[in-house]
Specification:
alpha/beta, TIM Barrel, 14 helices, two-stranded antiparallel sheet, 8-stranded parallel beta barrel, homodimer
Chain lengths: 315, 315
């Protein structure tokens, strides 16, 4: 087993892509032909929704796997369908891993130490039931909220270390008001800069052969000014970058997420890939009946856009 | 339907208790007689664990219902058993509500607005599946992490308002290093004081007949010095207070969580009630075979201890 960051870099090189496809099911946007397969299950409805979501995810994974190595299911959109939704979340991870993809569980958990340990074991670790060891969700990495402090993060770090998994600490999130608390000036630094320093520090014990740590950072593409500073503060951290596409960030915005080696960042897109059929120019070109072609082409185009940055950054 | 805070106050008065029993299943500590009922299910193990947990919770709820009106399942200890664990979480909430208890889902969720909306609907709201409305978890309130800012909180507030539910914002958590970020000085105030001001502000639109808001705050009993300040900053917020019992806080520590009206706080205990049989003096008096008596007596004693503060505060 290799360090999570080496695993990440290997798959980026293999697929020639540092895109992450966010597997965020929006029930209304899932094509009707999938929904109709399960209409006999419309009661109970949560089971029906979960089965539709899983089938959609499987079809999406089949389309994207030749072009991308990383997926990121956002667990909130599964929790929305109760325990059936969580069943779909678990099965989605299992299928993605069978296809050789790296799975980042976007769970943003954070709690007091004993509780954080339970979350860490649930998502990237293991649990004993009498003498049997089970791996409940078995994601390769998770996102973690640092608000509770170092003792709430340590169980995730220890679990990541034990199982060669990764974590991404929320440093500067992509939502419009993320600065409200994250940009508060504490002494001479902004709160998110202090958390960035901690994140780089926490990561020093888990550095892989390529020089990156298994402890990364979530840095929103929607705040390009902060990115340059954060890149310097966290040289060994991989950035998981949300906000590209549907949230409005462009190629120029994410350019400085990358180091000179062309590495150090993975760029997430969810709605703009999964539901490309609903967005120009794919909407006009393909529409919903050819949603798979729209998704494929949107992903290929995103790969090309990002790879141009690579060439630019590594000049 | 009444405002969540009025609902809370009504049940506190009815049961003469402002205790919250934390339903935190620790598989190893669950008595063997319950585990043996499900041994034919030891494969698959996650299902077995989940069925044991649910049965334990049902027995606990039956014991505590005469003495307490509020329970707080911590979802991490259910996620630890995968989607089967979440099934046990959902069924636990359903059973507790059938018994007339108020259920606070301790989920500590927090995410960007569209994602926060999914979490809010999952836990205290509803979801449409085609034309059917489903309520996935149907807790009465949830805990929420404020790190992402106001736009990440608004979906929870709006959902709480629409369905007469409650939320508790993490203001000052009970873990030993909670001060690392939460006590940082931003200008003239500590970060958690700034969040406390926001919490009181967010709550002004959801005030019930008794003068309290449906937007409360999590304030750890383990930091008594902060409590007095926070009580002044958030006069209309109910405090959900963890840290009593197993985490070391005493009656004196939580005294100033209450307002002069004897209201404004609910005090959580988990391990010291659920596994009282494992703690002195109940360990010696009862032991594991009489675990129900230990739990009942520990709870009655905790009620008495806290009610003495009431008398003291309202003098």
């Amino acid at each position: 087993m290799q360090n999570f960051s080496d695993h990440l870099i290997a798959i980026i090189r293999k697929k020639n892509s540092c895109v992450v496809v966010g597997l965020d099911p929006h029930f209304k946007l899932i094509p009707d032909d999938i929904k109709q397969k399960f209409l006999n299950l419309h009661k109970p409805s949560l089971e029906y929704a979960a089965r539709v979501i899983l089938e959609f995810n499987i079809q999406v994974i089949d389309i994207i796997t030749p072009y991308v190595g990383i997926v990121k299911p956002q667990i909130a959109f599964y929790e929305l369908y109760g325990w059936w939704g969580i069943w779909a979340y678990a099965e989605t991870i299992k299928y993605a891993k069978e296809k050789g993809l790296i799975v980042i569980g976007d769970v943003k958990r954070g709690d007091v130490p004993t509780t954080a340990e339970a979350y860490a074991n649930a998502h990237i670790g293991e649990v004993y039931v009498n003498d049997t060891i089970e791996t409940p969700f078995a994601a390769d990495a998770v996102t973690v909220n640092p608000f509770l402090g170092t003792d709430s993060i340590l169980p995730f770090i220890q679990t990541a270390k034990k199982h060669n998994k990764g974590i991404f600490i929320l440093v500067k999130t992509s939502n419009p008001l993320s600065g409200e608390f994250q940009n508060l000036i504490c002494g001479k630094k902004k709160l998110h800069e202090i958390i960035a320093e901690k994140t780089n520090e926490w990561g020093k014990d888990l550095i892989g052969k390529e020089g990156y740590s298994a402890i990364g950072a979530v840095v929103g593409a929607t705040f390009p000014k902060e990115i340059t500073t954060l890149r310097k503060v966290m040289p060994i951290a991989f950035f998981l970058v949300p906000g590209y596409g549907a949230q409005g960030a462009t190629v120029q915005d994410i350019k400085y997420c990358f180091n000179k080696d062309g590495l150090g960042a993975i760029i997430n897109a969810s709605r703009s890939i999964l539901y490309a059929y609903d967005i120009s120019p794919w909407k006009e070109k393909y529409g919903i009946t050819a949603w798979k072609e729209a998704t494929r082409e949107a992903l290929i185009k995103m790969n090309e856009e990002i790879n141009e940055i690579f060439l630019d950054v590594t000049k």
